[in-house]
Specification:
It contains 19 helices and 19 strands. Helix 10 packs across helix 17, helix 12 runs antiparallel to helix 15 and helix 13 packs across helix 15. The chain is about 40% helix and about 20% strand.
């Protein structure tokens, strides 16, 4: 575990398609991240809908902690908005519903009849997305599970509860529920009351760095970890942890792109932007580390390519990227943020239909469709970053691209070309690094957010991509896709 100057931390990092347990060795000038265990996250189609295999994920976490070996602390981050319901005795009431499940279809209009969308946005600062926890809870009203529930835990807090027996609700993830006041950082009780949502279901709020319990004896026995092992609250929304790991300099004017199943594109601010223009552009204000605000837009991300590969029954992306690099640039483009790409199933067919819808040629081969996805994502990144600058009245000189997409050189270069500013790619495991560094600060290793970013910048491999090509081609392609669908009134 620890020495005089270094400590070891385990980061449980659960993504929408896989989970991993990473170990981070941290010291004043040291940051080494090692993968202990990686496991799939495969949602399950049941007769009642799409569900997470939360028990399989928990088993993967336990196996990962056993593989990690002795640690000074562990922290948990995951995707946002989804939750588990517990009975009075703490037992789980069914597998958590997947955010891509269809149960929230039409629920937004029901909510807006009670709380108009302008009022909802001013109160919470959270963008419209059909799967926000608020809409999920309204959709669940009257169901046997919600009626029986006495506790609600967001996914990382549920895992922490099973590990420690203690319940809490970490704030960065809670902010994505659309039930937190954007300005106070506390529950918006008048809003919840108007919608019939019982905030008593939620455990007390925790903040990144707060203690979250100690491993139960049975968990220590199962994992072989010598105790006591504290669990530390981190930025439990994986994007909060990833943004904390953006290797930006103290004076850099930067935008960030957290890339993976989703692309999250935006700025780090000191205060939320809750104007009507921001709502119309569908930007969200999620809470981050050290009181920061993640002002960003959700874009479908590499989910588009992942779903295509599932349809094609392919597992190796390398040949697809090689084919895509040989394809004509910007021949096939779609709006990568369009809602018709949210659900699983026949993504190649939906991309082809979207190309027809904007009056362009239709991609047919896997290489053509892959190039369409990457060009379209670069265009969506361009649009989001430009609009964020305008809405927040802040210019940027560089884009930091972190997460799994940092390994995709073609996507990184296309994003630099589209945005017209350099892209610094890396680290790929940003969420795990941010998770580890919040733990390190909580356990005696000094440094503010800027210092931890400097540590990442000089210890992790980064790649710079300078913009190239003809910017007018990107402007012309943008005009083909930027007739954005208006939000429902």
């Amino acid at each position: 575990m620890s020495t005089a100057s270094t400590k070891t931390f385990a980061a449980v990092d659960l993504g929408a398609s896989s989970g991993r347990v990473m170990t981070g060795r941290v010291g004043p000038d040291t940051l080494r991240l090692t993968e202990a265990h990686r496991f799939p996250n495969r949602p399950v189609h049941l007769p009642e809908g799409l569900r997470w295999d939360i028990l399989g994920l928990y088993e993967g976490v336990l196996d990962g902690l056993r593989a990690a070996g002795p640690v000074d602390s562990l922290g948990i981050d995951s995707w946002a908005v989804d939750y588990g319901l517990l009975a009075a005795d703490g037992s789980l009431l069914g597998n958590p519903v997947h955010y891509r499940d269809r149960r929230t279809e039409g629920v937004a209009e029901q909510v807006w009849a009670t709380v108009p969308p302008d009022d909802l946005y001013r109160a919470t600062g959270i963008q419209y997305a059909p799967f926000n926890t608020l809409y999920q809870l309204v959709a669940a009203q009257g169901t046997p599970q919600l009626t029986a529930a006495r506790h609600l835990l967001l996914i990382p807090d549920l895992i922490a509860y099973w590990l420690t027996g203690e319940q809490g609700t970490e704030l960065t993830n809670a902010s994505t529920t659309q039930l937190i006041d954007a300005h106070t950082g506390d529950w918006n009780r008048p809003l919840a009351d108007r919608l019939g949502i019982d905030l008593a279901l939620f455990a007390p709020l925790r903040r990144p760095g707060d203690p979250a319990g100690t491993l139960l004896p049975a968990v220590q026995e199962r994992t072989g970890l010598p105790g006591p092992v504290p669990v530390t609250a981190v930025g439990s929304h994986d994007t909060a942890s990833a943004v904390a790991a953006v290797p930006a300099g103290r004076r850099e004017r930067f935008a960030y792109l957290c890339t993976g199943t989703w692309s999250l594109a935006g700025l780090e601010l000191d205060a939320p932007v809750t104007t009507g223009a921001s709502r119309a552009a569908n930007f969200t204000n999620e809470l981050g580390i050290d009181g920061t605000v993640r002002f960003l837009r959700n874009i479908m991300g590499l989910w588009l390519l992942q779903e295509c590969m599932r349809t094609w029954e392919l597992t190796d992306v390398t040949p697809l990227l090689a084919d895509a690099a040989r394809m004509p640039a910007l021949r096939y483009v779609v709006d990568a943020a369009a809602p018709e790409f949210l659900a699983p199933g026949d993504m190649p067919g939906r991309i082809a239909a979207a190309c027809r819808g904007v009056g362009g040629p239709v991609p047919r081969t896997p290489g053509e469709i892959t190039r369409c996805v990457l060009d379209s994502l670069a265009l969506a990144h361009r649009r989001a970053i430009r609009e964020a600058q305008h809405l927040a009245d802040r210019e940027v000189d560089v884009v930091h691209l972190v997460g799994g997409g940092a390994r995709n050189a073609l996507l990184c270069q296309l994003t630099a070309d589209a945005c017209g500013v350099p892209v610094i790619a890396g680290p790929a495991e940003a969420a795990a690094l941010g998770n580890v560094l919040v733990q390190a600060r909580a356990h005696g290793l000094p440094g503010d957010l800027a210092s931890t970013r400097e540590l990442i910048a000089h210890t992790q491999p980064l790649t710079r991509y300078d913009p190239s090509g003809d910017p007018t081609a990107w402007e012309a392609a943008a005009r083909r896709t930027e007739d954005a669908r208006p939000l429902p009134a």
